[in-house]
Every structure is written in structure tokens, then in C-alpha cells.
Amino acid sequence: MGTLGLDLERGLFLGIDFGTTNSVVSIYNFKDGEAQTIPIEGSNIFPTAIQFETDPDNENKLLRTFGFQAKEAAVIYPQNTVLSIKRYLGLDDEVTINVDDKEYNFKCQQIAGEILGYLKQKADEYVQEEMNMAGEFSGCVITVPANSTDKQKKMTKEAAVIAGFDEDSVYLRLEPAAAAISYAINERKNKKVLVYDFGGGTFDACILEIKMNENEEPVISILSTYGDNNLGGNDIDKIIVDMIYEEFRKLTNDEIDLFDDDADDGVSKRQKKIALVRLFQAANQAKERLSQAKSTKVVLAPFIQEPKIVNINMEITREVFETHKRTNKLDDSDVVYEKFDGKNIVDMIDITLDCIDKSLESAKLSASDIDEIFLVGGSSSIPLVGEKIKEKFGKEPFKSKISPALSISQGAAYYCNMIMMPTVKGPVVQEKTIHPLGLEIAGKRFLEIVGSGIEIPEDGLTIEAEEPLITNFDNVTSMAIVVYENTMPDEKTNIFVNGNGMKRLAGTSLHGIPQAPKGEEKVKVVFNVGQDNMLTVTAKSMSDDGIITKLSVDELY
């Protein structure tokens, strides 16, 4: 078996776009000098799905099925199939499945880790058998939404370790930056670019500046980013789910509630779960077909068989899809339903345009300053998205040679190249702080500690507040440490934390400060920002018997 002609002491690295609905993996092919997507089970796009079943040879052991087979199995076995696990990363809730009347509970990162582990296994097999490369993937670059919380990032890293990657070789990078690399490789020009990233579970608007350096390689800087962690293709699917469910309600005289397992309406819990999985899959398929055609048919026959057979056979046009306003709560929480109640797809796209406006404002740019719009994520393929972008910017989105669904993973593969071969020429991403970060101090004022546009070194950026905090009352024994991000900085010197654009990130208290008169006790505060944009804040009492606290901020950028 041949090997790469490289010093690969750190092993091979895999670029992973771990998506809510689908995942994509890519590798940097040194022979061809470009990123290459690895097909998993014959497809470049692999469903982020896992299904469990009892091992027939050992009733105490569970077997796993992944991807397309798991997604299809969800129609028959919804109770032991997990879809869209990425939306649960960052939550403390466990995932409960039921296999042969036995209940099992898993941590979210365990489920995600098993899916990532399968992707790693298949990628290992592919490069060994098809590319004649020795070894396996010991490291990876996993992309995360620009607005990921610290907790989501930590769980993603934990999942990668569970998957079999070396802990010290797991890197997280922002999805828009990875997409920008894919764009910059093909367009080697000085430009300001908007990355419009509309994925299955999240939306990010990110403005980047690309400049060619003396080696004619693109240098990419993030100027601003703004997004919505609770808006994605899954929510657009629910517009069609709502349409189909309305038809179902008419056919059953509104006597059956598929979303209430305890309702006495003659339909078993199992039948409801199967019907709902089929409903959501049919809606997703209809949405994808409507990206290419002006109408599509939805046929679910039979849809349910108890207490009577109900068949659904309906035509959905693109026009009706674009104008239908959602009316049913479906499986959403009260908070999410309130957000989308009465909204149609136009309203959802308008939310993405509002994010773009905030990103432009933060970067101190106007729409006319943007040279190119790069669409990323499966939901960006919806024709109405392109129409709205053209209307706003007066130009067509960039026609990429790479599918919007593959660009993030291939950008991650270029990151892998930078890690494996740091001396080789190629695109450079200047990891910088995006917005000012600081603390709330007396009078609800904002004390800026980390400015915007500061380059983040490979080992992280550490900045200590210029002046220590002081106690403002006698005998104070604790002090609140509340971290804020100024998402819309301006030239004002006196900024208040309740002002426009201020975002509370996290808070804790430093307890055990020695009692002393007002102003005598001082607290040193240090901010550390890693290249994965994870922030840690350390506060320490400066007296001899002082104490220390550390705060991992739960949400950044």
C-alpha cells in the first residue's frame, strides 16, 4: 500500500461538516492539490441519523444502523431512531430511545459521537481502498455555526473524541470561514463577501474580506457575523408539514391529534410516531422537489390505518408553498411556536435578511459595499432565497462550482491542509475577534476588555483588564462577574449594557473576597479567546488570601 509523500506525524485529518440534517466529509488531496469530498455509502451527502436494534445473538447488546438506512428505518421504528441530534447539542437533556420495550438513555454527545465514528470509519476505509493511502484519520476539523454556544462547542469536541479522534487533534472552525475558503480558492480576487449560510438547523450571515497576499494566496478576515441558532431548513420543512397536516385534519374532521400521544382518539402511540416520521420525511422531499419544479405531489397512502384508513393525496405548488402561513404548533415548544406562528417562508427569509442588516451594520458597511454573495447550506437552494438576495443587493448570488451543501466540508479540508502542512502555500484565515468583549461595572456601564479585529494567535489570545475591579462598598465578600459582547460598536465612550447591540453572554460571582473597607480589595480579570472563538474569563482577588473563579462563557459571536 502506498503512502503520502509527507511527514504525517500528526496523522491524517478529516474535514467534517456535521449538519443537523446531513453531514459531509472531505479530505485535502495532496496529489491533486485540492479538497475532495469522500462519498459515504456512495453519496457525498449522508443523513445525520442513527437507529438502534437488539442484537439477535445477545439481547443485552444494541446494534447500530446509520445514515440512509436509519432515516428509512425511522418510518417503521421511530421510537429507536434519532434524527437531527445536532439541535440537542448544548442541552443537558438525555436522548431516550425504546428498543423492544426496553428504554435506553444516551447523552447527546454520545449519539453524535457514534455518528461521527461511523463517518470516520467509512472515510478510513475509502482512503485506504480507493486512494491507496496508509493510516487512518487521527485528527479532524469540525465546522460549527458562527453563533454556537460554548456548551455546544464543548459537546461537539467530546463527540469527536468518542468517535475515535485524538483529543489534541480535534479543531473547531466557524462554518462561514470554511465556506469562504471554498469561495476564495476559485475566486482569487480582493473582495468583500457575504456568506449566506442557511443550513438544516441554523442560519448565519457572515461578512468577510478577502485580500490576495504577495504570494497570490487569499487572506480571509471575518469582519462581522450575525445569525439565528433557531432558524433552519427544518423550520421551512414545517411549513409543508403544516399544509399536509391541515389536509389531514380536514379528512378526519379534526378528531385526531397526531402530536398528542395521550389523546383518546383511537390511534395508538406507535401509529402516531410512524405517521409523524412519514409526514416530516414527505415534507422534506416535497421542499427539495419544489426547489426544481413549480409543483409536486404528496402521496401518503395509507397515512394511518386506525381507527380508520386515511389516505393523503395532494398537490402543492411552489406559489402556495411560498405564501402558506403556519397555523399548527406541531412538535414545537411554546417559545418556538410563538416565533413561527402565522409566518410563511417569506417571513423566514426576511429574518435572514434582518441578520444580514445587523451584520452589515456591525461591519460598518452597506449592501453596495458587498462584491459577492456566496450561498451555503441546503436551504439556500430554495429559489425564493436567490430572488430575495438579488432584490436586496441588485446582483445574482455567486454561481459556485461547488454545491452549497459541499462547500463547508471542503473548506474544512483546506483547514486540515493548514494543520498537516503549515509551511505549504495556501489560503490563510486570519482568526480575529469580531466584536468587543467586556464586563458590566457600576452604573450598568460596559467596560471593554477585548477590542474587535484583534488577531488570535494559535495558542489563543489573552488580555488582562487595564485596571483591576474594586469593591464599591465596605466589607464586600462577593462580586458579580457579568460578561457582555458589544455586537454593534460605535465611537461612544460611555456605553451601557442595556444599550442597543449589547448582548449578555454569561455571568457568575466571585465569592470569598476578604472583608475590607470600600476600594481596598481589588480583583484582576483576564479574558482568553481561543482560535475556536471559545472564551474563558478568569477573575482573581489580588490579596494574599484571595480566591479565584473561572467562567466558560456559554455563548459567543
By CATH, the architecture of the largest domain is named 2-Layer Sandwich
Counting DSSP E segments of at least 2 residues, the number of strands comes to 27
Shape: globular
Tally of discrete structural domains: 3
Classify the fold: give the CATH topology of the largest domain. Nucleotidyltransferase, domain 5
The helix-and-strand class reads alpha+beta
**Strand residues, percent:** 25-35%
- Which bin fits the share of residues in helices? 25-40%
Distance between the termini: 45 Å
- Uncertain regions spanning at least 5 consecutive residues: 1-9
| Gyration radius from CA atoms, angstroms | 25 Å
CATH superfamily of the largest domain: ATPase, nucleotide binding domain
Mean pLDDT: 88
Assembly form of the protein: single chain
CATH domain class of the largest domain: Alpha Beta
In DSSP terms (H or I, runs of 4 or more residues), the helix count works out at: 11
- Biggest sheet details: 6 strands, mixed
